[in-house]
Structure formats: C-alpha cells, structure tokens
Amino acid sequence: MDSDKPVVVLERLTKRYGSFTALDDLSMTLHAGQIVGLIGPNGAGKTTAIKILVGLSRPTSGTARIGGADCVRDVRKIKRLVGYMPDRFGSYDNMRVREYLDFFGAAFGIRRRQRTKRIDEIMETTGTTYMKDRFVESLSHGMQQRVGVARTLLHDPQVLILDEPANGLDPQARIEMRDLLLRLAQLGKTLLVTSHILPELSRICDRVGILTHGKLRAFGTIEQIGRQISQRRTIEAHLIGAAQISAAAAIIRDAIEPQADVVEAVAEEAIRFRTAIPESELGELLAQLVRGGIRIVQFREVQTDLEEAFMSFARPDEGRPETAFVAGGAARG
Amino acid sequence: MMLFQVGLIAVFVVLVMVRWPTDDRVALAGLRSQQVFRLFAYGLLTTLLILLPVFPATSIVREKNQGTLELLLNTPLGPVRIFLGKLLGVLGLAGILLALSLPAAAACYALGGLSLTGELPRVYALLALVAVQYSTVGLYVSSRSNTIDGAVRWTYGVILFLAVISLGPHAFFQGQDSYLATLGAWLRCVSPIAALMELLGAGDIGGQGLLSAGGVPGRFAIASLVITAVASIATIGRLNHRIFDRARPQGRISDDRRIDEQRARRILFLVDPQRRSRGISLLVNPVMMKEFRCRRFGRLHWLLRLVAGCAILSLALSVATTKGALDWGAAEIGGIMVYLQVALVVLITPSLAAGLIAGERESGGWPLLQTTPMSVFRIVWGKLLSVILTLVLLLCATLPGYAVMVKVDPGMRSQVERVVICLAATAGFAMLLSAGIGSLFRRTAPAMICAYTALIAVCAGPMLIWMGRDAPFGHGTVQSALTINPIAAPLSVIRASGFENYDLIPANWWFLGIASAVSLMVLIIQTGRVWRPQ
C-alpha cells in the first residue's frame, strides 16, 4: 500500500447540536498504514468525529472522505471500507464467540465457506482462537476488546476506527492490544484510535491529534507537538554529587534568560531549567560549566511526553497558541 | 404513572355515575350497588395483577446489574431491612392504588346494599393480601434473575400460573370422585380470582351448575400467607454474597467430547444444545438467526420442547372431549384451548417482540448493525421473522387438538377454521403491538412492561365489561367492548359459554388488522428514525 496516499481526509468538519458545537472546523489527513491517535478530555469531540467517519452522524458542515468515498453520500461504500469498534462492546446473550463473529460475517455478506476461513484467520491474528466456544457475555473486558477488534477485521476493511480500545484493560492486556494494533498497521491497515491511556498511544502512534472543546489543538508526531507547546526546552544536567549544585545553578542563571526557572533537585543530584536559547549557546553553557570545574555526567534535553502535551492543551488557563501548527500541514483545526 | 392514576379514578367515577339513582324510587335490595361494586372489585384486582408485579420484578435485578446492590449489601443494613425496604416501597404503590379507589367504594356504599363489616372490608383485605403476596413473589424472582426482561417475563409467568392457570384443573375435573378433582379444588385456592368470585357471590369458575364447597377466601388467605412467607425467606436468603456467585460458563462444546458421549447427548436432547453450530447460510436472514441464537429459549432444542409440550396439552384436552368427561362438549374444550392459546400468546409475545429494537439499543448492538451493509428493513424483517416463526410453531403445535375436535364433530370445521384465523390475527396483533410499543424505548425493561400492560389491558379490559353483562352493562355495550378483544372473538366463534350471544366477526378482525397496521407503521417510522445518522 502506498503510504503517501491519503486514506482518510477530514476537511473543515463541524458538528453542532443546537447552540453547542461538538466539533469545530476539524481538518485532518491520515495516510495508509499510519496509526493516528486522537486524544482529548471527555466531551472533546473524539467520538463525534468518529461517528461522522463511520456514517452514524452527519456533519453540520465540512466533508469527510475515506478511500475517496464521502462519509455522508456513500455510506454503503464506507461500511465496506471501515471497521468500527465503538467504546461499548455490543454483546449478545447466549452467543458463542464464533457464532458472534459468524453473524457479523453473514451481515457483511461473506459466503459461508469463505467466512469460516476468514474467522479462523482473524482469530489467529487477534489471539482469540482459544475463546471461540466461550459465550461472549461471559468474556472478561480484555477478551471482549480483542473479539471487538476481530469483528472489525471480518470484512477486511482498509481503515480501522477504534474508540477507546485500551479502556479498562489490565497492563498485560494493554501490551497485547498494543502489539495487535502494531501488527495490523504492518498489514497495511490505517488505524484511527482514541484513548485516554496516553502512554499507550505515545508508543504506537505515528501521529497524534489533540482535541479540546471540539477543536483540534495540535496534530503531528509527539516530538512536533511537544515543540508546539512552547518554544522553551527543558534541559537537565546530572552532576556527580550534590555539593556543586548551587555553583552550577549560579553559572546557568547567568547564562540563560533572567526570568527562567532553574530547579535544583538535590536528591537527584540534578538541575533542570527551561530556556529558549539556541543550540550554540547551550553548547557554550556546557563548556562554561566544565570550565568552572562542575563534574557533569549528563547534559540533555528532556523530551515532552504526551501527557505533558495533553495537559498543556487541556488546561483552560494555559497561555498557549489557539491552534498548534502541524507537521507537514497535514491537519488544521 | 400520574396519568394512569387519573385514568383509574375516572373509570371508577364513570362506573359509579352510570349506576347512580336518577329517579325517586328506592332500591331496597341494593342490587345496583352490588353490580357496580362487583365490577369495581374485579377492576381493582386486574389492575393489581397487571401493574404491580413489574415493580418488585425489576427491583433487585436492576440494582444487581447497576452494581448498586453490592454497595447496599456493603452497608450495615442487613438483608431483612433491605428486603423490607423494597417490599414496603412496592406496597406503598399498591396502597396508593387502593386508596384511589376508596372514594368510589364509598360511593358504592352510599348507594346501599353493601356492608362495612361484610364484603367491603373483605374485598380490600383480599386485595391487600394479593399485593403482599405478588410483591414478595416478584422480589424473589428478581433475586433469582440475571436480566430485567427475564425477571419481568418470569414474574408474569408465575402470576399467570397462580392467578389463572391454577383454576384450570378445578374447572376441568370438578364433580368427579378422584384425587385430581380434590387436587384441583385445592389448587384453585391459590387464585385470588376464585376467592374474589366467592366473596362477591358470583359462584365458581366454570361452575357448570355444580355446587362446590365454599371457604375459598379462607384457603386463599392461608395459601397467600404461606407463599408470602416462603418467598420472603427465600429472597432474604439470597440477599448476600450468593446473589453474585455465578461462575462464567466455560463454553464446553459437545464436539470436543468423546463420540459415545456425543451420541448419548444427541439421543437425549434430539438437538444437542452444546454442539458447534454451522455458519449462517446467506439464503437466510442473518438477523433472524442471530435472534434465535441469542434467545434463552430460542435454540432448537428448547423450541422442540415447547412445541412438544403444546402439542401434548392440546391433544390431552381433545382426548378429554372424546371421553366425554362430565359431558363437556367440543365447545367447552375449544373454549379452554382458546384461553390457553391466547394466554400463551399474551405471555410469550411481548417477551419476544418488545425488546427487538430496544434490546439492541440497550446492549450496544445497534451501532454495530448500523455499520453493516444490511438495510434497516432487512434487520426489522429478520427480527419480526424470528418472532413470527416461533409463534407459528406454537400455534401449529396446538392444531392437532382442533383436528381431533373436527374429527369428533365435523360440523365444527368452519368454526375451527375461523378460530384459527382469530388466533393468527391475535398473534400478529400481539407481535406488532409489542414491537411497535417496544421501539419507542431505549431499554428493554420499560419496553416490555408497557407492551405487557397494553396487551393485557386490551385482553382483560373488555372482559371486565363482559363480566358485567346484562347488569350493569347492556348487550350493545358488551358487544362493542368485546369487538376489540382478541380472546372474545374466537370464543364467540366456538360458541363458548357466555359468548354465544355475541357476533364479533368480522368487526374484531377489522380492529385487529387496523391496530396491527398502525403498530407496524409506528415500528417502521420509529426504527427508521433511530437508524438515521444523528
């Protein structure tokens, strides 16, 4: 599959319920084989965006296309292109896992012989073969999530849209789910995943979008988003012993912006500070510290993690840009 | 609820006003008052039987499913206090219903002919016993159930047995010198209907002119208190950790057993419930198959048992006709069969049809169906088909009884044909009414409750007016009321006792047809509405 080919394209997507705007001018592009994470607090508009994509909701304005098919006009085509796993499993009483998958396979019009083979394949892929005779309502949450993913794969869709797949899973099940999603991406599927479990997303997603109050605040790789949050970088210097911390802090304060915070972490034998000075000046600062007799074992930039980025956008009083610019112009909110 | 209460008061007021004296003559015997009071008491009992069981039936299982029962059991409140709290809550509602009827009862008393120490307090005491007994039974069923709709279904089933089916053996075997007759005479004492009839001086169920021993109200009181005590103790005994003790079924499958075990199971079950099922053929509607598979009694082995049970019962009744027990004619036996069939339809149909759409919406399956390429019409048709096939199977299973009747009395052929049409129309009406009402709800329990209430009201309401035939209601009024009744039409066709003078066909078919069409429209419109993207 051509990874440069846009598979999912959202353009200025807006959804209003009366005076309430659930989704505000959302634009985003997903390419083949990508795993894209959509994060945001409750009520941010993630599920609304997903429902529009799978044809369960209609946008007030804007367009959404999957594989060239319009999500409003070509709903039947969209159903063939997309595998959708909602945040609720959708259990049926007295049905075994295999019967459950068989029903959805039949609903997608897959012939019986082909369906049997397909169910065997996807159960193998999703690691659900051992539970084929279990009743779906008696499965644990983690098992149900995996069966849910298996269900989305039945008709071999090009795009998988998974709403909170890691929600409520124990650590081991989370790791298994993460591996499963990576495997599916390797098979060429495009995945759009929402989650509250941010470390999980940061490990698997090629791109992440942050939604708050219906607006896309940031979109790109985690590193790119981190840089969008603030021009300042967090630098960390580890010393040998805590005795020189005060001396090192003094040198740093002289070299960087006067108002910048310098934190002396005595217990960790480290100093952290945020600065916007360029790379060359940072190099000079390091040389100064060495010349000043400070025994440094590590001098590095601390990467902004997804939780920090998310919190930065989720906090209403944060003095951040209204919308972060996104790498490659792939999204606009 | 408020609407219902206002409606109830209005009915009572109308009932009293109809018989309120308008001339200056004095009715010393108080006949008018007794006529009104009789209907009024039957109405109150019917209301209690229809409305009350829903509340205890959903009370414990709802808390269990919502997870609040765990919190409740974790408080210092003991099981007895929790049980009493729930019981008193339900009885409070029953108390409101009975209190609402007091002004009308006072009006009946003012008309004369009723005694403050006679039938008036006795009827209210009986109704209070009914309320307590059925509330405790409902709470017990609720404590044993895992789903709300299952609890509602089982509670109505138990109450149908206690109130109506328990009258059957006595009606059938009375007058005989056998242990079955004695058993029947005792069994009818668990029914409040028999007790109320005796209190109101209305004779005995299916009396056939025979004099039966009295004392039914007293026996009912004892039976009611015993059932109440047993149900209460059993429910209190369930209100602890045991209510959550339910192992997840491991899904053992017969295909993994030894060959001889598989063969034994096949002989035992005919259709082994634990065999691995084949994939759904594309020639059949997948939704229909899904509906059968995910129903507790939808699997083939259960359907076979149900059909076999109906067939045996139907044939047994017909054999009784041919033996001429108590000189019962084909019409009487036909009448009993009609009652049983309609009871079966009324009991089963709402539980099958009311949750067709609401169940999907509640379980989260609806958006999954929406994302499949199936059209909404195919989905609705598949769901309706699963109900139609079940009902057809059940009704067909009772046909052998009619076949025997026709064989015994060939002159009844055209009557039996019309009865079968009536039953088919009733089944279709019950299905579409339940499905139409159910589609208006997001959750199965209220959908089922409303469907049951509507169906029982249509079946029982006109029968109350029929019970007041000749006095206070005239022939025309009763005929008009019975026109909408699905039970009365086949009974009038078969010339069952009490229905010989009513000509309800084809007006009844027209009513059922139009009501079914309206229900179908509601179902289609409402399903289309929830199917559309938001």
Number of strands of chain A: 15
Query: How many strands, which pairing sense, and closed or not: the largest β-sheet of chain B?
Result: none
Shape of chain B: globular
Which CATH class of the largest domain in chain A applies here?
Answer: Alpha Beta
Q: Please identify the structural class of chain B as seen in this structure.
A: mainly alpha
- Gyration radius over CA of chain A: 24 Å
Output the helix-strand order of chain A: EEEHEEHEHHHEHEHEEHEHEEHEHE
The mean pLDDT of chain B is: 82
Report the β-strand fraction of chain B as a percent range: under 5%
Description:
- The complex is a heterodimer of chains A (333) and B (534).
- Chain A has eleven helices and 15 strands.
- Chain A has helices spanning 46-53, 75-81, 97-107, 112-126, 141-153, 171-186, 198-204, 222-229, 245-255, 279-291, 306-314, and strands at 6-17, 20-31, 35-39, 61-66, 69-70, 82-85, 159-163, 190-194, 207-212, 215-220, 233-239, 262-265, 270-275, 296-302, 331-332.
- Chain A has a six-stranded mixed sheet with strand order 6-7-8-3-9-10, with helices on both faces.
- In chain A, helix 8 packs across helix 11 (306-314).
- The two termini of chain A are 28 Å apart.
- The model of chain A is unreliable at 317-333 (pLDDT under 50).
- Chain B is an all-alpha fold and 534 residues long.
- Chain B has two domains: 29-244, no CATH class; 280-531, no CATH class.
- Chain B contains 23 helices and no strands.
- In chain B, 43% of the residues are buried.
- The mean pLDDT of chain B is 82.
- Chains A and B meet through helix 2, helix 3 and helix 4 of A and helix 13 and helix 17 of B.
Keywords:
heterodimer, A: 333 residues, alpha/beta, Rossmann fold, Alpha-Beta Plaits, 2 domains, 6-stranded mixed sheet, 5-stranded antiparallel sheet, 15 strands, disordered C terminus, B: 534 residues, mainly alpha
